[in-house]
Amino acid sequence: MKTCPSCGKKFTDDKKFCNLDGTELIVLEIPEEAAIPEQTASEEHLEDPYANDAVNITGDKISDGVINNSGTGNKINKNNNTDNDNIDNQGAVNKDRDGDIFSDILSKDTFFADKNAATTNEFKYARITLKHDNNLTEQFFDLNSESMIIGRFDQSTGNVDIDLSKLPDAEHISRKHARFTFENGKWFIEDLKSTNGVFVKVGNASEFSSRITEPTELRNRDQISIGDIIFLFTV
What we know:
Elements: E1 2-3, E2 10-11, E3 26-27, E4 54-55, E5 61-63, E6 66-68, E7 75-76, H1 95-120, E8 126-132, E9 135-143, E10 147-151, E11 162-163, E12 176-183, E13 186-191, E14 198-201, E15 216-218, E16 223-226, E17 229-234
Protein name: FHA domain-containing protein
InterPro entries: FHA_dom (IPR000253), SMAD_FHA_dom_sf (IPR008984)
């Protein structure tokens, strides 16, 4: 009988090389004193690996259920735990190392999730362009802040962010008519209890909505009616 010194596979005597790794085979000689007598199932005796003074296959002594591994200097108990939780050399899982790797994966996922969220919620400039007789004009107002009030200047209340006092039909505009806000990556408009209200026409809808009563999301190319003045919203 021959065996491969590299992989341990056994071959018949007529083989010269291992068909797995090409290593030259050697003759497997078993000394007579080392030969293991055949045993029947009834004669087999399984030694308790944790019995006192037992020895494992590496020649390390097992005492009180603890293997003193001379190769690594670590002690491994019955539960495969070491005194320092580092038992890679025994083929066991290094909990500290794998825990760190898992934490790294979580932290990276969290980083990219935060980054994507930041990109999604990044401030987006918008614009409202005045419409007259259902046609766009060259007059527009930029929404360049996260909160902007649109209305009409009055000495008693002061300036507003977007002043419509010089536009036709400005008399139908309240001093603080509505508020544009940017939140969580979206634009909203809110009626500030104006006299003549705020109305929104979504996309290609044929008619404006009823007067809004709560902050309403605005999408690209929605139309807004503030009093009797109509704007096209673009972002």
